[in-house]
Write the C-alpha cells for this entry.
Amino acid sequence: MPFKRLVASRWKTPIRKMAPANMTPRERMEVSDDEFEGRTGVREQLLPEPMRFGKMVGHSASMGLLFELLQRAAMNDATVLIEGETGTGKEAMAEAIHHESLRHSGPFVVVDCGAMPPDLLETELFGHEGGASRGGAPRQSAFEAASRGTIFLDEIAELRLDLQTKLWRVLDRGQVKRVGATTYAKFDVRVIAATQRRLRAEVHAKRFRSDLYYRLAVMQVRMPPLRERMADIPILVDHILGTLGVSDERTLIALHSQEFLDRVARYRWPGNIRQLRNYIERCVALDNTSLSPNPEQSASERPPSEAIDISEPLRTAREQWVSTFERRYLEALLRKHNDNVSAAARAAEVDRIHFYRLLWKHGLRVQAPERQGATNDE
C-alpha cells in the first residue's frame, strides 16, 4: 500500500466549524470570520493543521520526528520495542504501525503480559493441545492467531523469567509448540512489544533476559510523556472531543477556551494522554470545565464520609471501616495509575494476584485482556 508522506502544514485552519443553532454548517462556510463573530459573538480558535500517523496526532517537532521513524518502521517487518510511561499511547502506536504496514489486512492480536496469571499467560501465548486435563478443546497460540498480521506483546517486562526463555526460543526459531504438544508449528507474524519500564535497566538488574531484549529491540522507539509535548495539548483536546462525539457548541467553546487550555497545560499529567482523555470526558459528563485535573484535588471536593455508627459492636464497625478504606484505597490507586493493575500493585507493594483478589472482593472491575482483531478501525 502507498505510504503517506508526513508533512506539517504551515497554514492554520479552524479546528472545528462550530455553527450556532440558527446557522447551518454550509452557511458558516459561506461567511467570513469577522461576519461570524459579529453574528454570534464568538471568534473561532485557529490551530495548526496536525500531523497524523494512524490514530495518533501531534504538531510538536518531537512528534514529527517520531512519526517519520514510525513510518520507516511500518515499511519493514523488523521487531519493534516501544518504551514509554503508562497512558502515553503505546498500543495506539503499535496499532498504527500495523495499519500502515503491508500486513494491514491481517489480524492485530494483543497480549497483555501484565494482566494475567503466569499459567493463563502461557496458554494465551503458546496455546495448548487440549485433552481432559485442559478442558477438552485445543487452543491455538497467539502467534497462530496473528498469522500474516501483527502480535503486540504489551507490558513485556512483566513476563516471568521462565516464560521469557520460552518466548525467546519461539521468536528465534519462528516456530511455536503448544503446551502438551510434541510438534512445532511455524508462524508468520510481525512482533511489536511495549513496556513502561526501562528494559535495559531490567536486564542489568537480572530481571529480564538479555538475549530476549536484543531480540526485541531491533528497532527501539520511545513514546514521549505528555509533559514533554505540551505544544500538542490544543490539538489533543480537539482530537479527544472528536472521538467522544461532543457536539454541544457551548461545551466545545468552553473546552477550546484559552483559560481551559492554560489550566490543562499547567498540570503535569502523570497518567499522560489516558488521564487527559478521562479528565475531558469527566468535564463533559458533569458539564463543568472548571474541574481540577488533579485527582487528589477532585477527591477532596467529595462530601465527607458518614459518621461512625456506635450502635454496632467494635469488631463489626471496625470491619466495615476497613472494608470501606480498602475499597476507596483501591479506587484511588487505580485512578492514579489509569486502571493499570500491574503499576497499581507495585505502588501498593503487593503481589498482582493478591491485588486482583482485592478487586474481586470489592466488586471493582478493570477491562479484561482480550485478543483484538483490528482489521477495522474503531
About this structure: Residues 1-26, 40-44, 299-306, 368-378 have pLDDT under 50 and may be disordered. The chain has three domains: 24-52+227-300, 54-224, 314-361.
